[in-house]
Amino acid sequence: MLRFFLLVNKQGQTRFSRYYSGMPIQAEERVLMEADIARKCLKRSDVQCSIFEYGQYKLAYRRYASLFFVIGFDEEENHLSILELVQAYVEILNTYFDNVCELDIMFNIEKVHVILEEMVSNGRIVETNKHNVLAPVLEMNKASR
Amino acid sequence: MFEKSLTDLIRGIRANKKNEQKYIAACLQEIHQEIKSNDPDIKAQAVSKLTYVRGIPSYDMSWASFHVVEVMSSPKYSQKLTGYLAATQSFRQDTDVLMLTTNLLKKDLASGNHLEVGIALNGLSHIVTPDLARDLCQDLVSMLSHSRPYVRKKVVLVLYKLFLKFPEALRLSFPRLKERLDDSDPSVVCAVVNVICELARKNPKNYLSLAPQLFKLLNTSSNNWMLIKIIKLFGALTPLEPRLAKKLLPPITQQIQTTSAMSLLYECIHTVIIGEMLTSGGNSDALAAMCVSKLKIFLEDPDQNLKYVGLLALSKILPTYPKLVAENRDIILKCIDDHDISIRLRALDLVVGMVNKKNLTDIVKRLMSHLLPSNNNNESSTLPSTLLEPAYRADIINRIIFICSQNSYSNIVSFEWYIAVLVDLTYVAGVDVGELLTTQIMDVGVRVKSVRQYSVKAMQRLLSDSSLLENCQFPESNSEVLYAAAWITGEFCRLYSYPGVTKLPHNVQAVYIQSILKVYAYWANSLTYNWDEDSKQELLRFTEMIKDKISTFCSSTDLEVQERAYNAREIFSIIHQNLSTTHETTFDVENNIYSSTNKSPSIISELYPLFFSYELNPVAPKAQKKVPVPEGLDLDAWINEPLPESENSESEEEEESYGYGYTQKFGGSGDLIFSSGSGTAIGRRRDRKSSKKGYNSEEDEETKEKRRRERNERIKNDPFYISSTGNDLSKHSKSDGLSKRVTEEIDVDSIPVVRLTMDEFIFKTDKKTSKKSKASKKEKRHSPPPVPPVIYTDIGEMPENATLSDEEKDSTKTGNNKPIWNSIPSQSSGILDVDFSGVSNVDLSTPLGADEKFPSMAVYLAPEEVRRREEERVRRRFTERRIKQTQESTSRVKKSKSEKPKSKALEITPNTKNTENKGEQSSKSKKVSKKKRTEETEDRKKKGKKDKGKKPKKKNSISENATLENHDNVVVDEAASIKTLVDSDDIQVLYTLSLGSFTEAKNEPPAMIADFTVRNKCSHKHPLSKLTFTFESTSDIQFDKGLIEIGELQHDEQKSVTIEFKVLGIVGAGLTVSGNIAYEIQSDEETKTNADIPIRFELPMAVFMLNIPKITPEEFKSCVTKTADFPFTGSTSIRLNASINLIEQSFQNDVTRLISMATGTHIVEQVQGAITMYGKSVQGYQVAGLAKLTVEKNIMLVENEIPGSAQNTSVRIELKCTDQAFVDGLIREIDYLFKEL
């Protein structure tokens, strides 16, 4: 099960966060944890693998330009598929925003949420097909207008 | 306007990098204001901004929960989205406004817009609580058959979350969920697999029955993501069903060989390993070898991630195939030196498992080298800083000790080496592992006799190492090891001096002192063997010295150290005194008794057995179990009789005074009481009642009185003691002895306390220790023991009378369970954990019982809902009254006209007549009219069935004769028209729908009647048997009796059945009834074919319309002008393809008829190109409609000069209604009807 999905930039600022447990943790705890994770990710070099243990969870991260996409998950989850999920997510964002950058994510946080919501539900990966993910999102855009 | 948009806010934050906090605080102020705004747009924008600000850590938004709910309920799609997003981000399980969302969610889930349903479902999956789960589960389960795959997929996923919160739902909905495995849409199937996979991981037993379906999916699907899930799911199932493993091997093997997706390959290998497929399959060795060789590819890959997971998988295969793993030892050892710490740690996991006698030294050396600061510079530059991370160092040390000590040190060949390693670790550790090292050193020292000498030597070196003492204030220096060192030297006796100990931690000091005593005792005792003046002098001198030194510790701040120091000092001073006195006497009579009394003073030899009577040995692992239960000890018996009930009801005051009484007794009287465990407690309690008299008699009345007075004096100012009045006394004095204690006047002295004599106590404890402790192998050591050749005793100490025969089995069992290195700390409850206990306890193997039903709607209603209902009720009453008035007036008008229609539409006379009847009667009493109506419906039904054949003809005649007057009749007739439900080779089912009887109480859900006519049209003239109809109650539709058995149906026989149901849900578009028809065809003697046909039909809105008398245009006008009564509108337009000449006519005849048929309204007035309609539904909803014919010139077509159809004609229909859902449904039906045409 996925526990959380974070987007942190190189300055250690959280750009996006999504938690998949019934109880959102206390704000202070969350801040500390996110900062700690960002620090840990920044510390790692290219020669290191992008999966590491963090407390009782595992973290898988990928870095795209200035942004780290970090997923916290349970041991039982397929580690490689988590990394593939990150890749798929970024590809979809890239298609949607047409060359996504950090600003796109900041200014369209709702869309980023909606897209992730289509792909991951309750901490399970449910959809990775680019078309299937984007179709309802685009439809929503149309409906909002 | 002047509010900041979200984009403005973000820009602002970016622009104010320096004083971001301040800027956000100012924005929050604005948001506070905006969120309270009445403008939904501003409110939504505020919530959206707040959600964003919350994304920046440390801004709480729980205060805005209510506003979030407001935005969630916005009718605007984008605002709703914002609201739900805010809710998912900010709501917690205990957010109180969640209670208000139940109805909102219900409404959104029932929405016709699938995107809205989608957001509601997404939101629900985050905010669901047990209450929400209970209230919504039925809605969700019925949505499993939603027409949109998108919604079905989401529902399946939300259901999983629901099960976690409300486990009962799992049993109830699982059959429906299972059906979705065969869904036509792959993404729905994937979702179901996902959910089942998660469920199966918690309790796989329930899902074994799904194996065939899943197996099919495994073989057919090409979606890697789903395959991973399915394989994972099988991994959970195979341990329960070993046969499954055999079946799975071919497809999984094939996947392993062919797939190019690394994640799938990994999953296959992983499942093969953890699914115990290697132990059950036939050629499992080959498979295992294949897995390991594939994993080797992972390890050799330059991608670090693959390396990592490869090691992870190898560590799983290690317990079963250590040999295969060992083949890759070189690669694995290479990984230990990897740059990446996580890879290293995983490699270490493997190494831990690969250790054996031969390679232990080598591996430990390798690990130790990681701890040593690297000498060569080039290496240190490449190594990451994590090498020096304390956690990593501690981990390595833990592992070293783990691999050495596992299986009772079975891998260690030389314990001297091990002790040396431990000592080295003390120096190089650099982290605080002192405790671990201490226990290890002591453990080895105790267990392994042969190494004691060596370890004592090593410990001496440690003790005399001044660097340890100097650094002892840093925990990293591991000066705690000195504890072990001192203890070992003390216990195993080699003498050494201890300088500068005072700075050491207190517990170490305490052990030092104790050890000094021990060492001293041993040394003194050894002196006694050749006792002479020299040794005596030396002893004397030394005793003096120690005594002085120890005095320093007598003023220690630590209690333990202080007490021990005093103890030791006293002993030393006694000895010293003793020695010096004997010295004098021996000196005096030296000549006489020198030869005979060449003996040490007895005090010295007596000191020795104080410490060394018993050798300290390790206790056998099973010793505790082997303690025989002594005779007469019944563990099930009450130790204290449970207190009488009456005592519970008494107040706390009593409890307090109860306790008080006891302490008074203990402290005040000065009795010596041992409260050692339960033994004394029994006596105390039991005797309290029984020996009251005896105790009383011992004390004379006078002293008692005196004590009582003293006591009263003492408690007078005691704040913990509530004084009571005389009333209380009288009240309690009558009750039993226990409650007497309540009052202040309680006779404390009369509370008997058992006195324990000292010898009894000693006797008891003595007996205990002899049984429980390590005293079985008593070995009095009067002389220093020679070092025995034994290396160590494996069994350890056993209690007396231990039965050795039994229970050896379970010891072997546990012996098989090799200790496994826990690479990941036990997953105790983390902050993000989810409670699965409910779901994993659900049992799906037993069929659903009759009493298991979805819970009905919540008992509570949100305040706004209550208000809404109340308003609705009042509104209905008003409209009722008004309708009544209208009816009265209409009927008056009608009476005059009534002759005309009768003659015109002959074929539908019964209806017309009924309508007329009703019209007349309604003026008298509404109730009666309703009864009539029921009869009428019955009539119509019969007629409908009989006249099936005539139907088309009748239609024609109606359209021919279509007049204003009989339109209402047509409407009713059409609404109840016969439709075909099933028409297969064997069976034909027709049905009609009509309103059932209803009562005056208007808020009761409308009842409907469905009549089915079943005909056996089996081509081979076989009879149909066991014909049954089953209907499913959903959240919207409730069947009193969901099952109808018809029995046998001969060829061409026709039977009809009627079923009644209530419509509970919102009457709107898409109300459907679903169920099944099951029957058996007996084609010949042998063969029977079972058929199960799903049935499904929609409830058209028109069915809900009442057959009310026509209203006049004037009434209509006055009714409609009061627009407040018709707050909801809907509109649509229909294109007509009729030629220009016929348009007006077709509009007048067909179109209007169809519209009024679809809406169940009657036509009020018809003018050129427009009609008005009016109708009323059974719930009291009024519908007013206007249809207008518009003709537009189509320029394109005119240019092309195509005559006739040169105009684009359409009919614009506008409906006004008192209910939103109802009008939506009506519009939809009109659209639907004309699309069909």
At a glance:
Chain A: Its main location: membrane. The complex is a heterodimer of chains A (145) and B (1237). Chain A has 145 residues and is an alpha+beta fold.
Chain-wise SSE layout:
The complex is a heterodimer of chains A (145) and B (1237).
Chain A: E1 2-9, E2 14-19, H1 27-43, E3 51-54, E4 57-64, E5 67-73, H2 79-97, H3 102-107, H4 109-119, E6 120-121, E7 124-125, H5 130-144
Chain B: H1 6-15, H2 20-35, H3 40-55, H4 65-72, H5 77-90, H6 101-109, H7 114-127, H8 130-142, H9 149-165, H10 168-179, H11 186-202, H12 211-220, H13 224-237, H14 242-258, H15 262-274, H16 277-280, H17 284-300, H18 304-317, H19 322-327, H20 329-336, H21 341-354, H22 360-371, H23 377-382, H24 390-409, H25 415-428, H26 434-447, H27 452-464, H28 466-470, H29 481-492, H30 506-529, H31 533-554, H32 559-588, H33 590-593, H34 602-612, H35 623-626, H36 645-649, H37 652-669, H38 677-690, H39 692-698, H40 701-715, H41 726-733, H42 737-740, H43 758-772, H44 808-816, H45 837-840, H46 863-897, H47 899-904, H48 909-924, H49 926-946, H50 951-961, H51 967-975, E1 979-983, E2 987-995, E3 1007-1016, E4 1024-1031, E5 1037-1039, E6 1043-1049, E7 1054-1063, E8 1072-1082, E9 1088-1098, H52 1113-1121, E10 1128-1136, H53 1140-1159, E11 1162-1167, E12 1170-1176, E13 1182-1193, H54 1195-1199, E14 1207-1217, H55 1220-1236
Antiparallel strand pairs in B: 1-2, 2-3, 3-7, 4-6, 4-8, 5-7, 8-9, 10-14, 11-12, 12-13, 13-14
